[in-house]
Amino acid sequence: MPPELLVKDANAQLLHSLIVKDGLFSVGREPGCAIVLPAPDISRRHAAFTHSSRFGVLAVEDHGSKNGTFVNGLQMRRCVLYTGDVVRVGNYLIHVRAGSSGPPGMGDAMARRESRVGDVAL
């Protein structure tokens, strides 16, 4: 199953539903971003998601935004994303409906989240 993201505003209203293809796509206020979020608490190029179907990895990386990028409530510079993770940029929530493939032998997303060290998931 390809990665899928659901973008919701502060009122939990669905704004975007995206099937993520290979490559990099940005999130920010700038019109050229793949996900445009027109709010003052969002930087012009706030963050970027990357996906590699070859390795089964979906990740997010903050691009030096003023207000940060948070994964499951923790501020992160970059992080591998799994099904069930929630990324917050400004007042927007990006729900990972389908994320990275888990390493063999790992159970649910919670077990994988516990393996994180610092700002990177192992």
Automatic annotation (TrEMBL):
<feature type="domain" description="FHA">
    <location>
        <begin position="25"/>
        <end position="76"/>
    </location>
</feature>
<feature type="compositionally biased region" description="Basic and acidic residues">
    <location>
        <begin position="110"/>
        <end position="122"/>
    </location>
</feature>
<protein>
    <submittedName>
        <fullName>PSer/pThr/pTyr-binding forkhead associated (FHA) protein</fullName>
    </submittedName>
</protein>
<dbReference type="InterPro" id="IPR008984">
    <property type="entry name" value="SMAD_FHA_dom_sf"/>
</dbReference>
<feature type="region of interest" description="Disordered">
    <location>
        <begin position="103"/>
        <end position="122"/>
    </location>
</feature>
<dbReference type="InterPro" id="IPR050923">
    <property type="entry name" value="Cell_Proc_Reg/RNA_Proc"/>
</dbReference>
<dbReference type="Pfam" id="PF00498">
    <property type="entry name" value="FHA"/>
</dbReference>
<dbReference type="InterPro" id="IPR000253">
    <property type="entry name" value="FHA_dom"/>
</dbReference>
